[in-house]
Structure formats: structure tokens, C-alpha cells
Automatic annotation (TrEMBL):
Name listed for the protein in its UniProt record: Acetoacetyl-CoA synthetase
Ranges where the AMP-binding enzyme C-terminal domain occurs: 550-619
Superkingdom of origin: Bacteria
UniProt similarity note: Belongs to the ATP-dependent AMP-binding enzyme family.
Coiled coil residues, start to end: none
Keyword terms, alphabetized: ATP-binding, Ligase, Nucleotide-binding
Presence of the UniProt keyword Glycoprotein in the record: no
Protein's organism: Microbulbifer donghaiensis
Family matches, as InterPro entries: Acac_CoA_synth, AMP-bd_C, AMP-bd_C_sf, AMP-binding_CS, AMP-dep_synth/lig_dom, ANL_N_sf
AMP-dependent synthetase/ligase domain: residues covered: 95-476
GO BP terms in the entry: lipid metabolic process
Molecular function per GO: acetoacetate-CoA ligase activity; ATP binding
């Protein structure tokens, strides 16, 4: 697949490469260890072969703030259970609040047009006051504090105040239904809940108060619910809170707390920092616990080296607080950059809204999803023609594989001179296995490189690392940002079952992928969604890539249907308004797929649907649709943004015919 991809779409100049932090780090490693690593490929290999030295050097380069670092970098080296920096003592919030000046730290933009900003000094003061209030409420090290919040300044302040104490932060976005919230927070028993009284989405104001009442009633552990005004004024929020059990308005919660200087609890490297949740479409979500040190080091590595994030940058990622990209975004504070927090629909009131914001805020690193880029192209938007985008130097994309056409669209219609970095990892590691690199060329359909210090390989069925062949994406050696474990998994069996069943002591991530000859990575889809017609494995991304070329199709989802002792490929399509799926369009779709893949990729059935079910973070749920088609239950529909869409796939007569 990489053979027809010989020409890069973008290449940095030698001068641009030399100016990056990645290249600065390479030169520093050479000098420190009397090496002669010539380029990224050699730096990557060294960082995997000499993991302890690499992570130790990164700690120094990042100037990690810690009361104790300790001599040892890696104690027990097992997966799971590796002991990185076993003697270190540090605090996550202290590292994110290292700057305390007048530079803008956070810009908040809501869909309704409201805008707020906070300097680093103001952020520190806000965190100090809220941490005092949490301490007065009895929050201690190891307690859980939850956020049912939009992506706003108050959410960041609450996370930093929580983690300054050594307590554990967990969050989901306010578009989750009651059962989705209970399935998550009910498992981890938070002591304090931060919750918005409402929020804005797609031109509507959504009232959260009825759900807040029910959340408190169902989760006994919540001692205090702090209600944050978003859709109401502070006064209206105070009035509304009077009728809620165990609730207090944010201003009153902070105002009643005694003065207390901000202190940073020094914890072990592997002290719990975040509890995050798997999408949970096949059962109750897994509660994935991430540690302070591994999260911090990995995010600083990805921001500074792989994104070249500096103090004069403005970083934006379109995300909700229920997706790990929010946690990733917020760590940008450790670099001293300005972060733009946006909450709302990216297409309201118009498709160019986020690009207006990019110009107005001077965004230099713009992060989004592959789904957004595909939808933007289908909308006919050409930001390059309508916007200046002077500061923009990098576009990041994740959530699903970005198709070749998405790459070409960015360079043709957004900006010619940007580093387009498709990135891939996930909630499981709160970071990336493969991602961008400002020193490397960009090839259509490929993630630029594997991350430093991560022994990422693609293995065939025999457990051998392969180049230029498809297989399972694994990480063959331990790394600092592995989860500490799962909450309520005392014997570790759920954790081991999730990642280590295929090969003992090797992390199998569940992606079907390929490492290319020039060191890039292609993701073909989730391993559990791989199609298997006639015993040949096909990644769904290979089909989506072709379907995106068909102008009439807005969206699609592909599954394998068990049929006559084999599997047949079934493609469901959402069409543009007014377009009907007739024989001519079916043939056009099939011909497009056949022309660029193989006959096995061509769907046996193409069926029009009105909607495609997605998780709240926007990922299509192939397994859920496959279950519905085969008459099996979908256990946790609360994880879906539009669970009603599943009904569209029940008992379809076309699927009972040859």
C-alpha cells in the first residue's frame, strides 16, 4: 500500500528541522552520550534500545519539577507492573502551573459567542482558591473528584485543584445520559462532583439540572455537588441550586473556604492521577487508572518533541471532557503555551466557525478528528481561500484513520505549508503510539512515525515483527504511561485480559496496522472490526477511504455479516439530502472500491440508512452495528451519542437475502 505513496505531500526544510525541539534533543543526546545519531530513525532506535537512558534524558530536558527524583529509572521491568522512577516524588499540577506570569494560559470560547481568558498568574490564583475549598470539604490524597462538565476554564481549574492535593480527577461530558454517568462515576465513588447547570450545543441550550438531581440521588458517595454556571448567570445558578440535594454554587463553595496557600502534595510516580473510561459499547466501561509521572512525561514528550510546542504557541484541540484528548490538551500548560478551549458544535452556526476562531486567536497547532476533516471537505469548505491562518503550522487528526483524500484536502484547501500529523493511541495509554514529527515528511494516509521510547511494532500471527505487511500493533517493551491498572480490578485479571492475552508481557493494542518502509504507520482499523471474507483480513479503513471519494455519500459504516458459512462485507451509507440509493449509485460505490482495492473489498450489500451510531467522542461503533445485525444485544447504549440509530439496523430484509 505504501508503494504508490513515494512522494511526500510536505517536507520540512533543513533550516526548519534544525530549529525544532526534536532536533535539539537529538543533538543533546549525541553530545551527552558521545553518539552520532544522524536522524529521527536512529534517535528512535536508540530511545527503544536504551529506554532507561532516554526517559532519564527526557526528564532532564523537560525540567520536571519534583521533590525527589531518585537514582533508579526502572525497577521491575515487566508488563504489566513496570516500576518507572520508583523513588520519585512529584505533583502533576505543580508541573502544569510552573509559569505564573501574565501570559494568557487559557482562552474559553463557547458556541453562543462568549469568550473568557485567564493568564497564568490568574490561573494559579483560581486553582489556589478552589484547592482551599476542596481541602475544606475534606478532599484528601487518593479521593476521587469528578467533572460532569463542558470544555471550559472552570473544568481545567477543578482538575488542577484536585491533582494539587493528590486526589484523582475523572470526567465525562454533559451530553452523557444518566445511565452513562452512573456506569462511570458510580464505579469510582467520587467525593465531590463539579457539574454545569446547562450548556450550548448546535444552537440549543440544554438544561442539565434534571440530570444533576438524579445523579446525586443515585451516587451516595457524593458529599458535595459544586454547580458551575454556564448557560445561566451566577445569580440564576444560585437560585436553582437551592432545590438540589447536597449542592452548592461554585462562587459560594469557593467563597466559604478559609485562606490557604497552594501546596502541591508530593506523590509517587505511579500515584493515580486520572480515571478514564473505555467507550463501553460491549459492557460496563472499564475504569482505566493513569499515573502522575507517566502521563506527565509522555505528554511533555509528545507536546515538545513531536509537536514542537513552545511558549509562543497557541494550541487548540476540538474535544469534550469525556475524551482523552482533553487531558492531552490541558497538559500543554506544562509547555507554557496558550490553550484554546472550545465547547459546542464545530459546524454551528457555519462550517467555517473553527477557522474563524483559528484566525482570531492565532492558533498555531490545530487539533481535530478525521471525521471533522471529512465532513468539512464534504461541506465544500476551503479555509485557505476564506481565512488567513497565518500562525497555523500544524494540523493534528485522531479518533479514526485519516484517509488519503483527507490528507490531500488539508494541503489543497486548508494550508499548503503545515505539518499534518495523524496520531493514534488512545484512552488506554492517554497518549499516542504513533504520531507526528516536525522533522519528517508527510505521506498521504500515513502517521509520520512511532513515538520515542516506545517499542511499537507490527506483528504477524507468528509473533514476528514485520515491515510492509499488515498485522497487530504491539508495544514489545514496557513504557511509563501504561495504566497503573483498572479500578476495582483487585487481581489485575481485567487489565491483563485487555492487553496481554495475545502475547504474554507484550502490549497488544487492538489496532490492525502496518509499518511502512520509511518508518511511517498505517492504521487499517480496529482488529476486532477487521472483516474476514473468504479468510482474508481486511481493515475497514481501506473501504472507508474509497467510499469517501463518492460525492453522494456523506458517511458510512462497514461490517462483516456471517453468511452461508463465510463472512460477507456489508456497507451502510448515509447520503446527501435528496439522494436515493439506486442501482446506478450502488454500482458507482462498488466500482470505486474495486478500482482501488481488491474484489474481496467490494461489499456484497450496500444499504442506505438515515444515521450512523457513534460514541460520544465521535467514533463509529462497528461492533455494536454488527451485534444488532446478528440479533445480539448491545449492552451499554449509554456510551452512544445517538443510541436510537441502532434501531435502523434491526431486521433489515436486505440482509436476509443473497
Amino acid at each position: 500500500m505504501s508503494n504508490n505513496n513515494a512522494q511526500p505531500l510536505w517536507q520540512p526544510t533543513p533550516e526548519a528541522i534544525a530549529a525544532t525541539q526534536m532536533d535539539q534533543f537529538r543533538r543533546r543526546v549525541n553530545e551527552r552520550h558521545q553518539l552520532n545519531l544522524a536522524d529521527y530513525a536512529e534517535l528512535l532506535q536508540w530511545s527503544v534500545d536504551q529506554r532507561e537512558t532516554f526517559w532519564s534524558d527526557l526528564w532532564d530536558y523537560a525540567e520536571v519539577i519534583a521533590s525527589e527524583r531518585g537514582e533508579q529509572v526502572l525497577g521491575k521491568d515487566t508488563m504489566p507492573g513496570a516500576e518507572w522512577f520508583p523513588d520519585a516524588r512529584l505533583n502533576f499540577a505543580e508541573n502544569l502551573l510552573r509559569y505564573r506570569d501574565d501570559k494568557i494560559a487559557l482562552v474559553e470560547r463557547l458556541e453562543n459567542g462568549s469568550r473568557r481568558q485567564l493568564s497564568y498568574a490568574e490561573l494559579y490564583a483560581r486553582v489556589e482558591r478552589l484547592a482551599a475549598a476542596l481541602a475544606a470539604e475534606g478532599v484528601e490524597q487518593g479521593d476521587r473528584v469528578a467533572g460532569f462538565m463542558p470544555n471550559i476554564i472552570d473544568t481545567v481549574v477543578a482538575m488542577l485543584a484536585t491533582t494539587s492535593i493528590g486526589a484523582i480527577w475523572t470526567s465525562c461530558s454533559p451530553d452523557f445520559g444518566i445511565n452513562g454517568v452512573f456506569d462511570r462515576f458510580g464505579q469510582v465513588q467520587p467525593k465531590v462532583l463539579f457539574a454545569c447547570e446547562g450548556y450550548f450545543y448546535n444552537g440549543k441550550t440544554i438544561d442539565s439540572l434534571p440530570r444533576l438531581r438524579e445523579i446525586v440521588a443515585r451516587i451516595d458517595s457524593i458529599k458535595k455537588m459544586v454547580v458551575v454556571p454556564v448557560a445561566r448567570s451566577a445569580a440564576e445558578t444560585k437560585a436553582a441550586v437551592d432545590s438540589l440535594d447536597r449542592a452548592v454554587a461554585l462562587d459560594d463553595f469557593v467563597g466559604a473556604a478559609p485562606e490557604r496557600a497552594l501546596t502541591f502534595a508530593q506523590t509517587a510516580f505511579n500515584h493515580p492521577l486520572y480515571i478514564m473510561y473505555s467507550s463501553g459499547t460491549t459492557g460496563v466501561p472499564k475504569c482505566i487508572v493513569h499515573g502522575v509521572g507517566g502521563t506527565l512525561l509522555q505528554h511533555i514528550k509528545e507536546h515538545r518533541l513531536h509537536c514542537d510546542l513552545k511558549r509562543d504557541d497557541t494550541l487548540f484541540y476540538f474535544t469534550t471532557c469525556g475524551w482523552m484528548m482533553w487531558n492531552w490538551l490541558v497538559s500543554g500548560l506544562a509547555c507554557g503555551a496558550t490553550l484554546v478551549l472550545f465547547d459546542g458544535s464545530p459546524f454551528y452556526p457555519a462550517a467555517q466557525g473553527l477557522w474563524d476562531m483559528a484566525d482570531e486567536e492565532g492558533i498555531s497547532v490545530f487539533g481535530t478528528s478525521a471525521k471533522y476533516i471529512a465532513a468539512l471537505e464534504k461541506s465544500g469548505s476551503k479555509p485557505r481561500e476564506s481565512h488567513k491562518l497565518e500562525k497555523l503550522r500544524a494540523v493534528l487528526s485522531t479518533g479514526s484513520p485519516l484517509a488519503h483524500e483527507g490528507f490531500r484536502y488539508v494541503y489543497r484547501d486548508i494550508k499548503e505549508d503545515v505539518c499534518l500529523s495523524s496520531i493514534s493511541g488512545g484512552t488506554d495509554i492517554v497518549s499516542c503510539f504513533a504520531l507526528g514529527n516536525p522533522t519528517l515528511p508527510v505521506y498521504a494516509g500515513e502517521l509520520q512515525c512511532r513515538g520515542l521510547g516506545m517499542a511499537v511494532e507490527v506483528w504477524n500471527d507468528d509473533g514476528q515483527a514485520v515491515i510492509g505487511e499488515k498485522g497487530e500493533l504491539v508495544c514489545a517493551k514496557s513504557f511509563p504511561c501504561m495504566p497503573i491498572g483498572f479500578w476495582n480490578d483487585e487481581d489485575g485479571s481485567k487489565y491483563r485480559g485487555a492487553y496481554f492475552e495475545s502475547w504474554p508481557s507484550v502490549w497488544a493494542h487492538g489496532d490492525y496496522a502496518e509499518v511502512t518502509e520509511h518508518g511511517g504507520v498505517i492504521i487499517y482499523g480496529r482488529s476486532d472490526a477487521v472483516l474476514n471474507p473468504g479468510g482474508v483480513r481486511i481493515g475497514t479503513a481501506e473501504i472507508y477511504r474509497q467510499v469517501e471519494k463518492v460525492e453522494e455519500v456523506l458517511d458510512s459504516i462497514c461490517i462483516g455479516q456471517d453468511w452461508r458459512d463465510d463472512v460477507r462485507v456489508v456497507l451502510f451509507v448515509v447520503l446527501r439530502e435528496g439522494v436515493e440509493l439506486d442501482d446506478a449509485l450502488i454500482q458507482k460505490i462498488r466500482a470505486t472500491i474495486r478500482a482501488n482495492t481488491t474484489p474481496r473489498h467490494v461489499p456484497a450489500k450496500v444499504i442506505q440508512v438515515a444515521d450512523i451510531p457513534r460514541t460520544i467522542s465521535g467514533k463509529i461503533v462497528e461492533l455494536a452495528v454488527r451485534n444488532v445485525v446478528h440479533g445480539k444485544p448491545v449492552k451499554n447504549q449509554e456510551a452512544l451519542a445517538n443510541p436510537e440509530a441502532l434501531k435502523l439496523y434491526e431486521n433489515l430484509p436486505q440482509l436476509a437475502e443473497d
